[in-house]
Protein backbone atom coordinates (compact mmCIF):
# COMPACT_ATOMS: atom_id res chain seq x y z
CA UNK A 1 0.00 0.00 0.00
CA UNK A 2 1.96 2.97 -1.30
CA UNK A 3 -0.86 5.48 -1.81
CA UNK A 4 -4.40 6.12 -0.61
CA UNK A 5 -5.60 4.80 -3.97
CA UNK A 6 -4.52 1.32 -2.82
CA UNK A 7 -6.75 1.45 0.27
CA UNK A 8 -10.30 0.05 0.34
CA UNK A 9 -13.35 2.28 0.48
CA UNK A 10 -15.11 0.20 3.14
CA UNK A 11 -13.50 -1.29 6.24
CA UNK A 12 -14.59 -2.92 9.50
CA UNK A 13 -14.36 -0.54 12.45
CA UNK A 14 -13.58 -1.42 16.04
CA UNK A 15 -14.84 1.21 18.54
CA UNK A 16 -12.70 0.93 21.66
CA UNK A 17 -12.57 3.79 24.20
CA UNK A 18 -9.05 4.95 24.97
CA UNK A 19 -7.36 2.62 22.48
CA UNK A 20 -5.28 4.77 20.16
CA UNK A 21 -3.54 3.58 16.99
CA UNK A 22 -1.24 5.87 15.02
CA UNK A 23 0.42 5.42 11.60
CA UNK A 24 3.60 3.32 11.68
CA UNK A 25 2.92 2.33 15.30
CA UNK A 26 1.80 -1.04 16.65
CA UNK A 27 -1.18 -1.78 18.87
CA UNK A 28 -1.62 -5.16 20.63
CA UNK A 29 -5.24 -6.21 21.14
CA UNK A 30 -6.99 -9.03 22.96
CA UNK A 31 -10.03 -10.15 20.92
CA UNK A 32 -12.65 -12.26 22.68
CA UNK A 33 -16.16 -10.92 21.96
CA UNK A 34 -17.91 -13.08 19.32
CA UNK A 35 -18.69 -10.11 17.04
CA UNK A 36 -15.04 -9.03 16.98
CA UNK A 37 -13.83 -12.58 16.50
CA UNK A 38 -16.06 -12.60 13.41
CA UNK A 39 -14.61 -9.24 12.37
CA UNK A 40 -11.08 -10.58 12.66
CA UNK A 41 -11.89 -13.74 10.72
CA UNK A 42 -13.39 -11.65 7.92
CA UNK A 43 -10.47 -9.20 7.89
CA UNK A 44 -7.96 -12.03 7.56
CA UNK A 45 -9.75 -13.21 4.42
CA UNK A 46 -9.12 -9.89 2.67
CA UNK A 47 -5.97 -8.88 0.83
CA UNK A 48 -5.45 -5.73 2.90
CA UNK A 49 -6.28 -7.23 6.36
CA UNK A 50 -7.28 -3.77 7.64
CA UNK A 51 -9.30 -2.97 10.76
CA UNK A 52 -10.23 0.61 11.59
CA UNK A 53 -9.72 1.70 15.19
CA UNK A 54 -12.05 4.53 16.20
CA UNK A 55 -13.07 6.22 19.44
CA UNK A 56 -16.73 5.94 20.42
CA UNK A 57 -18.39 9.00 21.88
CA UNK A 58 -21.58 9.41 23.85
CA UNK A 59 -24.44 11.02 22.00
CA UNK A 60 -25.86 14.06 23.85
CA UNK A 61 -29.21 13.42 25.47
CA UNK A 62 -29.35 9.73 24.59
CA UNK A 63 -27.99 6.36 25.57
CA UNK A 64 -26.72 5.64 22.07
CA UNK A 65 -23.05 5.60 21.18
CA UNK A 66 -21.65 7.43 18.20
CA UNK A 67 -18.29 7.27 16.53
CA UNK A 68 -15.67 9.94 16.16
CA UNK A 69 -15.34 10.96 12.52
CA UNK A 70 -11.59 10.23 12.32
CA UNK A 71 -9.88 6.93 13.12
CA UNK A 72 -6.78 5.00 12.09
CA UNK A 73 -6.68 1.75 10.15
CA UNK A 74 -4.23 -0.95 11.07
CA UNK A 75 -3.12 -4.04 9.21
CA UNK A 76 -3.21 -7.33 11.11
CA UNK A 77 0.48 -8.25 11.17
CA UNK A 78 0.49 -10.79 13.96
CA UNK A 79 -1.94 -13.01 15.79
CA UNK A 80 -2.09 -16.07 17.96
CA UNK A 81 -5.07 -18.10 19.11
CA UNK A 82 -5.61 -19.30 22.67
CA UNK A 83 -6.99 -22.70 23.52
CA UNK A 84 -10.39 -21.21 24.34
CA UNK A 85 -10.72 -19.48 20.95
CA UNK A 86 -9.56 -15.96 21.77
CA UNK A 87 -7.02 -14.03 19.71
CA UNK A 88 -4.02 -11.94 20.63
CA UNK A 89 -3.35 -9.72 17.61
CA UNK A 90 -1.08 -6.87 16.58
CA UNK A 91 -2.30 -4.03 14.37
CA UNK A 92 0.32 -2.04 12.50
CA UNK A 93 -0.92 1.50 11.91
CA UNK A 94 -1.37 2.18 8.19
CA UNK A 95 -3.33 5.37 7.61
CA UNK A 96 -5.91 7.59 9.25
CA UNK A 97 -9.37 7.86 7.71
CA UNK A 98 -12.56 9.88 7.91
CA UNK A 99 -15.86 8.03 8.23
CA UNK A 100 -18.30 9.11 5.54
CA UNK A 101 -21.09 6.62 6.28
CA UNK A 102 -21.75 3.71 8.59
CA UNK A 103 -22.68 0.64 6.54
CA UNK A 104 -25.73 -1.39 7.46
CA UNK A 105 -25.41 -5.06 6.71
CA UNK A 106 -25.54 -8.58 7.99
CA UNK A 107 -22.27 -8.57 9.93
CA UNK A 108 -22.44 -8.49 13.74
CA UNK A 109 -19.75 -5.79 13.80
CA UNK A 110 -19.65 -2.26 12.40
CA UNK A 111 -18.40 -1.37 8.92
CA UNK A 112 -18.00 2.05 7.43
CA UNK A 113 -17.36 3.76 4.13
CA UNK A 114 -14.24 5.84 4.65
CA UNK A 115 -12.22 8.56 2.94
CA UNK A 116 -8.43 8.59 3.11
CA UNK A 117 -8.15 12.08 1.60
CA UNK A 118 -5.80 14.40 3.44
CA UNK A 119 -3.84 11.62 5.14
CA UNK A 120 -1.31 10.82 2.40
CA UNK A 121 1.57 11.65 4.75
CA UNK A 122 0.63 8.64 6.90
CA UNK A 123 1.85 6.33 4.13
CA UNK A 124 5.21 8.07 3.82
CA UNK A 125 8.45 7.80 5.79
CA UNK A 126 8.81 8.52 9.50
CA UNK A 127 8.10 12.12 10.45
CA UNK A 128 10.67 14.36 12.11
CA UNK A 129 10.17 17.04 14.75
CA UNK A 130 12.93 19.65 14.30
CA UNK A 131 11.87 21.66 17.37
CA UNK A 132 11.91 18.71 19.76
CA UNK A 133 14.20 19.15 22.76
CA UNK A 134 14.41 15.77 24.42
CA UNK A 135 16.04 16.50 27.86
CA UNK A 136 13.33 18.92 29.15
CA UNK A 137 10.64 16.69 27.66
CA UNK A 138 11.96 13.65 29.51
CA UNK A 139 12.16 15.64 32.73
CA UNK A 140 8.50 16.60 32.39
CA UNK A 141 7.61 13.01 31.51
CA UNK A 142 9.48 11.79 34.61
CA UNK A 143 7.38 14.03 36.83
CA UNK A 144 4.22 12.74 35.17
CA UNK A 145 5.22 9.10 35.56
CA UNK A 146 6.16 9.65 39.20
CA UNK A 147 2.83 11.36 39.92
CA UNK A 148 0.91 8.50 38.29
CA UNK A 149 3.03 5.70 39.78
CA UNK A 150 4.16 4.56 36.32
CA UNK A 151 7.46 3.03 35.32
CA UNK A 152 9.28 2.69 32.00
CA UNK A 153 12.57 1.81 30.36
CA UNK A 154 14.22 5.23 30.36
CA UNK A 155 17.23 4.04 28.35
CA UNK A 156 14.90 3.01 25.52
CA UNK A 157 13.09 6.35 25.66
CA UNK A 158 16.36 8.23 25.38
CA UNK A 159 17.41 6.23 22.33
CA UNK A 160 14.07 6.03 20.49
CA UNK A 161 13.52 8.02 17.30
CA UNK A 162 11.37 11.12 17.71
CA UNK A 163 8.30 9.66 16.02
CA UNK A 164 8.49 6.35 17.86
CA UNK A 165 8.88 8.13 21.20
CA UNK A 166 6.08 10.66 20.74
CA UNK A 167 3.62 8.25 19.14
CA UNK A 168 4.26 5.48 21.66
CA UNK A 169 3.69 7.84 24.58
CA UNK A 170 0.56 9.22 22.91
CA UNK A 171 -0.81 5.68 22.67
CA UNK A 172 0.25 4.45 26.10
CA UNK A 173 -0.24 7.39 28.47
CA UNK A 174 -3.49 7.21 30.49
CA UNK A 175 -5.41 10.10 28.97
CA UNK A 176 -9.16 10.48 28.48
CA UNK A 177 -10.65 9.30 25.15
CA UNK A 178 -11.22 12.87 23.94
CA UNK A 179 -7.56 13.62 24.64
CA UNK A 180 -6.52 10.53 22.69
CA UNK A 181 -8.67 11.80 19.82
CA UNK A 182 -6.86 15.14 19.87
CA UNK A 183 -3.53 13.30 19.64
CA UNK A 184 -4.83 11.22 16.73
CA UNK A 185 -6.05 14.25 14.80
CA UNK A 186 -2.83 16.24 15.23
CA UNK A 187 -1.80 17.22 11.68
CA UNK A 188 1.94 16.73 12.26
CA UNK A 189 4.37 15.11 14.66
CA UNK A 190 5.28 18.55 16.02
CA UNK A 191 1.63 19.32 16.74
CA UNK A 192 1.18 15.92 18.39
CA UNK A 193 4.21 16.51 20.61
CA UNK A 194 2.90 19.95 21.59
CA UNK A 195 -0.51 18.43 22.38
CA UNK A 196 1.13 15.67 24.40
CA UNK A 197 3.13 18.20 26.45
CA UNK A 198 -0.02 20.24 27.11
CA UNK A 199 -1.90 17.14 28.31
CA UNK A 200 0.96 16.12 30.61
CA UNK A 201 1.24 19.63 32.05
CA UNK A 202 -2.51 19.80 32.57
CA UNK A 203 -2.50 16.40 34.31
CA UNK A 204 0.29 17.54 36.62
CA UNK A 205 -1.48 20.80 37.35
CA UNK A 206 -4.71 19.03 38.20
CA UNK A 207 -3.03 16.19 40.03
CA UNK A 208 -0.92 18.13 42.51
CA UNK A 209 -2.45 21.64 42.46
CA UNK A 210 1.00 23.19 42.98
CA UNK A 211 2.43 22.44 39.56
CA UNK A 212 2.80 25.30 37.10
CA UNK A 213 2.59 25.23 33.34
CA UNK A 214 6.01 24.97 31.74
Structure, briefly:
It comes from Meridianimarinicoccus marinus. The protein is of the alpha+beta class and 214 residues long.
Please explain how this structure is put together.
By secondary structure, this protein is an alpha+beta fold. The chain folds into 2 domains: 4-122, LON domain-like (Archaeosine Trna-guanine Transglycosylase, Chain: A, domain 4, Roll); 134-208. The protein has helices at 34-44, 134-148, 154-159, 162-172, 177-185, 189-208; strands spanning 10-15, 26-31, 50-54, 56-58, 65-67, 70-81, 87-103, 110-115. It has a 5-stranded mixed beta barrel with strand order 1-3-6-7-8. A two-stranded antiparallel ribbon has the order 4-5. A hairpin with a 5-residue loop joins strand 6 and strand 7 (87-103). Helix 4 packs across helix 6 (189-208). The longest helix has 20 residues, at 189-208. The protein starts with 9 loop residues before the first strand and ends in a 6-residue tail after the last helix. Residues 207-214 have low confidence and may be disordered.
Sheet of most strands: 5 strands, mixed, barrel
Which parts are unreliable, with pLDDT below 50 for 5 consecutive residues or more?
207-214
The order of strands across the largest sheet is 1-3-6-7-8
Q: Determine the mean pLDDT.
A: 90
> What is the number of beta strands?
8
Number of helices: 6
Give the C-level CATH assignment of the largest domain: Mainly Beta
Distance between the amino and carboxyl termini:
41 Å
**What is the CATH superfamily label of the largest domain?**
LON domain-like
Shape: globular
* Count of distinct structural domains: 2
Task: Give me the secondary-structure category.
Answer: alpha+beta
Helix content: 25-40%
- Please provide the ordered H/E string of secondary-structure elements: EEHEEEEEEHHHHH
Amino acid sequence: MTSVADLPGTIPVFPLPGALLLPRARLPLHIFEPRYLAMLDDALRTEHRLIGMVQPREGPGSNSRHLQSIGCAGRVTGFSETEDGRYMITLSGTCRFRITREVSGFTPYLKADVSWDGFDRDLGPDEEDPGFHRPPFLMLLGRFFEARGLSTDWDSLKEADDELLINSLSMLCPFEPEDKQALLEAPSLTTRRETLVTLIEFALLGGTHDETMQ
